[in-house]
Amino acid sequence: MRNISAAKDSVARITPEGGELRPFVFTPQWTPQAQFAGYYVAKELGFYHEAGLDVTIEHPNATYSAISRIRNSESDATTLQLVQALEIIDNGIPMVNTLQTSMNNGMALVSRNNENPLTQHGARVGIWSAGFDQIPICMNIKEELGYKWIRIASNINPFLVGAVDIICVMTYNEYNLLKQAGIELNDENTFKFKDSDYNIQEDGVYMKRDNYLQHQKEAEAFAQASRKGWEWSKAHKEEALEIVMQYVAKENIATNRVIQRLMLEEIIHLQLDQKTGEQPFTLRRDMVESAVNILHENGLIQHEIDYEELIP
Predict the structure, then answer these.
(1) Predicted pLDDT of residue 77
(2) What's the predicted TM-score (pTM) here?
(3) How far apart are the first and last CA of the chain?
(4) Are 201 and 105 in contact (CB under 8 A)?
(5) CA–CA separation, 3 vs 277, rounded Å?
(6) Which sequence spans correspond to the domains of the chain?
(7) How many other C-beta atoms lie within 10 A of the C-beta of residue 277?
(8) At 30, is the secondary structure helix, strand, or coil?
(9) Most CB contacts within 10 A, which of 11, 158, 229, 240?
């Protein structure tokens, strides 16, 4: 394994043109985990410093969300799924995407007894109480599945004890927990959104448009350094994992290295274009238009939002 201290020493520690570091506050949408590895790497290896930024990473908690911090101007940027950003814009808060990390959707439906989730009409479906549910809800309406939604915390226990027939999972999170619990996952009982017409990009970095216009240099510097952090993470997964575990330990998150390794591998896999295998970091016009159509047709947003509204 490459020594992280050596990696830090290899990064230039001077700011551009000898200027002072400019403050920038970033809030991931959830607690510390490998889903945000690239940002931790950019912070710890000095990529933000090299870009002239003094970045503070402030995680949200159960009572104060990342988007609340953005609304109250307590953070400059956050990570959001594309569908979340569209809903926020629809509610009157202009947002711009400064860096798109996800190229594919990481959601999946897993059913019991090797049954196809899309053939179980009227099934009880466990879905997160915290949200992130726009695409499954729209699919349920469009496909006339008649699901009965059961709001659950971000764990797999209701599925294991039979309280739900189907559970919505992230392929980088609960999906791996199901495997560890001994659940056999296969093409019969698993529906992955990335392999369907519902493949909508997820995580990207977003800022309020007015804040972006006031701090464009800082926003662009943050995006470029974050991209560098993700590229480094892809090339040095074990070293990136070590940095992730430092953040996990600091916040006393209940997880383990195996789960976080699997999460990092899947997150990076979802960042790759399915056709080219590249890590493009671009918000795709066709996926934005698809997301807008799905949300608008099913009543989750009231306005048909243009692609240009998300672009700086």
Answers:
(1) 97
(2) 0.93
(3) 39
(4) yes
(5) 28
(6) 4-104+201-310, 107-195
(7) 7
(8) coil
(9) 240
Q: Which CATH number, 2.40.50.140, 1.10.1740.10, 3.40.190.10, 3.40.1500.20, labels domain 107-195?
A: 3.40.190.10
Average pLDDT over residues 292-301: 96
Q: Characterize 181-204 residue by residue with b for buried, 16 or more Cβ atoms within 10 angstroms of its Cβ, and e for exposed.
A: eebebeeebbbbbbeeebbbbbbb
The confidence score (pLDDT) of residue 65 equals: 85
Q: What is the rounded distance in angstroms from the CA atom of residue 15 to the CA atom of residue 300?
A: 45
Count of residues making up the chain: 312
For residue 113, give the DSSP letter. T
Residue 46 CA to residue 33 CA, distance in Å, equals 20
Tokens 């549910």 found at: 133
Does the fold of domain 107-195 match that of domain 4-104+201-310? yes
pLDDT at 7: 52
Ranges of beta strands (E only) in 87-219 are 95-100, 107-111, 124-128, 148-152, 166-170, 190-192, 203-208
Between residues 1 and 115, the one the model is more confident about: 115
Q: Cα dihedral angle (262, 278, 286, 128), rounded to 10 degrees? A: 10
**Model pLDDT for residues 10-57, shown as the tens digit of each residue:** 544 445 555 789 999 999 999 999 999 999 999 999 999 999 999 999
Predicted pLDDT of residue 85: 96
Q: What strands, in cross-sheet order, belong to the sheet with 107-111?
A: 148-152, 124-128, 166-170, 107-111, 190-192
Beta bridge partners of 26: 57, 77
The CATH classification of domain 4-104+201-310, taken from the options 2.60.40.3140, 1.10.3720.10, 2.40.50.100, 3.40.190.10: 3.40.190.10
**Contact by Cβ (8 Å): 154, 101:** no
In this structure, the strands spanning 124-128 and 148-152 are parallel
Q: Which residues, listed in sequence order, are joined to residue 27 by a DSSP beta bridge?
A: 78
